[in-house]
Amino acid sequence: MSFRRDTITKPIFALARGALPAMSDTEREALEAGDVWWDADLFTGNPDWSKLLKIPRAKLTDEERAFLNGPVNELCAMLDEWRIFWEWRDLPQDVWAFIKREKFFGMIIPKEFGGLGFSPYAHSEVVRKISTRSIAAAVTVMVPNSLGPGELLMRFGTKEQQQRWLPRLAEGRDIPCFGLTSPEAGSDAASMIDTGIICKGVFEGREVTGLRLNWHKRYITLGPVATLLGLAFKAYDPDHLVGDQEELGITVALIPTNLPGVEIGQRHLPSMQVFQNGPNWGRDVFIPLDYVIGGQERLGQGWKMLMTALAAGRGISLPSLSAAGAAYAARTTGAYARIREQFGISISKFEGVEEPLARIVATAYQLDAARRLTCAALNAGVHPAVISGIMKLHATERMRIAVDDAMDIHGGKAVIDGPQNYLGNLHRAVPVGITVEGANILTRNLIVFGQGAIRAHPYLLDEINALADTDRERGLAAFDKAFWKHVGHSFRTLFRAFGRSWTFGAFALAPDAGDATPFYRQLSRYSAAFALCADMALLTLGGALKRKEMLSARFGDILSELYLLSAALKRWEDEGRPKEDFAALQWCMATGFKTIENRLAEILANLPNRFVAVILKLVVQPFGARVLGPSDRVVHQCASLVLEPSAARERLTPDLAYVDDDGGFARLERAFKLVTATDAIAKRMRAAHIRDWKDAVAKGVITQAEGEQLSAAHEAVAEVIEVDDFAPEVLSPIYKKTGDVHQFFQELGEQRAAS
């Protein structure tokens, strides 16, 4: 061992040590935040499927289920999204009071501090359900339970801080927000210019050591109404009051917004969404050191704290909203396509409609599968950083596609705004989810693979830590151990990838999963190909790989597909392998395999080392990218899942916030039930070539009761197809004087003629 280390490893160690790029503190802290989980298995190139299938399903307790069936349903019944958006531009006061009283802001806070003590899955289910009724209400509820003072206090706060602040947050006596983004620093936290200078000052009548803060933050959700601001800033100690260092680094602290110098700005209007959001400033705001979350010992540890909290938060809130959006799009679009006729037949019969409808259905199936699997990890106390990034990125991106498809199928019904439009506001809200909690462009190009390659790889992080060790001998010993394990792993992966690629995965490891068994084999094949190509890219490019953003994005896409497809298989297994849902699973697999093969082809076409690229192509893709996506038969079967009342339709779109009022969604549900219930009656009339139901009754084709039932269905469909219109003075104050747009323009023309 010592011979190998001193004669072979040592020069490699020296070469790698010289080539290792410098890593900033924020980069290192981001890498070290959170945990690895199933992503690490995927990175081995030989995932243990039994491990995946043994993961306990995320479930609700009786108390959590009662909350969903009680306060959550009550809240949804109180919400009128059109009036919230168009008239009030805010949640009404009775809704704010209800949210506080029922402790929606304290879902994640333990019961010992007055909170509800709910699991991550319960948190996800609540956000999911409210999202299908009101985006503004969902965002208002999700933010205090995601990245913010509550989460940070629970994980890092001192006992005194927890006892003081958590009960106030749980009961709604304080409304929290978190200030991270500033004009100078969005995704690039290292550029933050918000500062906290350690100094002496007077606080509540006594002189203490504290921080004098100056900041400017924007895009802060709940900022305009917050009473407690979590703040990220750079701390400095020029007078060495707490230690020898002058630059302490990013720090997070609690700032009551009534302190002198705190200024709350006016509201932003993000994509016409009316949840509270706005800027704030602090000018020479003084706080004692015990307002730093975690106390003095946490000075300079803020970025790692934030990244650790974000590893959980990004896996819940926006994925829940996105899964809700896709399920909502599937249910409404399936119903609308079923009841809407053109050229004398339901538009659901058109293949041009079936294709996007199938995409919506399969997206809803896959996103909820991934949401549940991620929540299972969070329920078990795991905080999967890479997977949370995958979830935020792909959940919001796929929601965007699903909602766009839904808009296309609905046509003018979804374009014309008004109280009966049940899709328009969701469509407007999509860019917000794409942008916040780490913009998707950044997440795809830099984070998913950039972080995953180091954290989830079996040996790479150990090698990097060994190379960075200030004790050269200790670092060499650690590097020798990790490096040769890595070499052995790479050779095993090479032979595994070669065998599986040339046999099309026929002999790859897979559990006995019935009709889904071949899918596991293909994922084992692609996992090996991914692991080998990733290793070779890291070997040939080294630290330069992080600057090859397009390559990194493609690797990230493959890792993401491996996770999302794993989640879909897990869902199908957990639900008892329902045959009716198999088409949705097939669509997900065929589409995911196509993406993986295309990304592999793109990587091999663009890898700078062409010799290695040619060898890799012979090993992992000797016959090129061959998967074409789902067949027309699968598309047809997948689309049909939401065209009739069925158990499959309910599994796909469970527990949406359905309120039986006169809103657009309720009208659609009623029409769908009536149309599907009268389908046999309508078929008899078509067979008899009779259009008027009264004629059909007179000729004995249908009974009077059947005719009346059919008439009710026609009336219900007409109500759904109808869109809103408005008096001119309702839409614009210009016309309020006359109330008649024609008269207004006539008078305007006369005035111009006279002048």
TrEMBL record:
Key words, A-Z: FAD, Flavoprotein, Oxidoreductase
Pathway: Lipid metabolism; fatty acid beta-oxidation
Recorded catalytic activity of this chain's protein: a medium-chain 2,3-saturated fatty acyl-CoA + oxidized [electron-transfer flavoprotein] + H(+) = a medium-chain (2E)-enoyl-CoA + reduced [electron-transfer flavoprotein]; a long-chain 2,3-saturated fatty acyl-CoA + oxidized [electron-transfer flavoprotein] + H(+) = a long-chain (2E)-enoyl-CoA + reduced [electron-transfer flavoprotein]
Required co-factors: FAD
Gene3D superfamilies registered for this protein in UniProt: Acyl-CoA dehydrogenase/oxidase, N-terminal domain, Butyryl-CoA Dehydrogenase, subunit A, domain 2, Butyryl-CoA Dehydrogenase, subunit A, domain 3
Enzyme class (EC, first level): oxidoreductase
All copies of domain Acyl-CoA dehydrogenase/oxidase N-terminal, residue ranges: 78-172
Organism domain of life: Bacteria
InterPro entries xrefs: Acyl-CoA_dehydrogenase, Acyl-CoA_Oxase/DH_mid-dom_sf, AcylCo_DH-like_C, AcylCo_DH/oxidase_C, AcylCoA_DH/ox_N, AcylCoA_DH/ox_N_sf, AcylCoA_DH/oxidase_NM_dom_sf, FadE_C
Domain Acyl-CoA dehydrogenase/oxidase C-terminal: 300-447
EC code(s) of this entry: 1.3.8.7, 1.3.8.8
Residue stretches making up the Acyl-CoA dehydrogenase C-terminal bacterial-type domain: 454-726
Family to which the UniProt record says this protein belongs: Belongs to the acyl-CoA dehydrogenase family.
The protein, known as: Acyl-coenzyme A dehydrogenase
Lineage start: Bacteria, Pseudomonadati, Pseudomonadota, Alphaproteobacteria, Hyphomicrobiales
